[in-house]
Request: fold
Amino acid sequence: MKQVQIDRYGTPWEVARCVEVPDVGAPGPGEVVFDVLAFPINPADMWFCRGSYRLKPPLPATPGAECVGRVIAVGDGVGHVRKGDLVINLQRENWAQRRRVPADDAIPLPPDIDLRQAAMVRINPPTAQLMLSDFVDLKPGDWVIQNVANSAVGRLLIVLARQRGLRTVNVVRRPELADDLKALGADLVIVDGDDLAARVAAVTGDVAIKLGVEAIGGTATGRLVDCVANDATVVHYGSMSGEDPKVGRSAFIYRGVRLTGFMLGRGLARRSAPEIRAIYADLAAQVVAGRLGAPVDTVYPIDKIREALAHADKGGRNGKILVAPNGAV
Reply:
């Protein structure tokens, strides 16, 4: 079977290669085998290839934080998935044609879900959902501010916040994004800049913003902190700048702002297997209903992984880059 491997760290499309490896074999007790139908190329996968991600397994290693697959075999004692089911996988190393994993890591999806959207259900939708629920007890009418609002997580957060009656301030880098985000349900869209806090206060009527969601790092974190209310919480879940958050100590000492971090694995680890499946069942149902989704730019075959990675690194894309290891989706 085909699998993507890296044997050194560096520029992703230079270090990744598609190789032939032995088949994964039959499932043992409590295991599931599935064919990988599609996987997205996420920023974390690019960082993994570059060696800048938190995980550095022994090389050669296979990237791949998420995928969607179809079960082809189940081992003894497996009851929540059956042959033919669509599943997402909570484990990594998914850039391959086939996977064999513990059954608890295989999360079933509705049979009528769009496969391209299903490939992107594993990480971004629950990240947006749990950041809205796990840190601040938000009520309808409360305000949330986020930067990177045009990212996949940012767009999902807009939709999920709207469903809960929350109002959002969405910070972007380009003003032409405003109409698209407002069509999703964004209340306010504002371009980032040094005077961000003053402009946010002006357009919101100086409303108390209880939750900030931040994924740039560096001075952008400080600008978002300046926008939230005293005793508010700012959740840092990524660092597009590659810099640690830079926040003046007065925000903590005098204003009582809390800066914390989010990683999906930790959020799910606090929940039982049935609770995790329930989260994904709800999100998948919303995808099927057309309420949640993300744009897809191009789908590549697995043997074109280098071209796919180079494309994923380019600006100006109209959505995610996907790879279909076992044929078109």
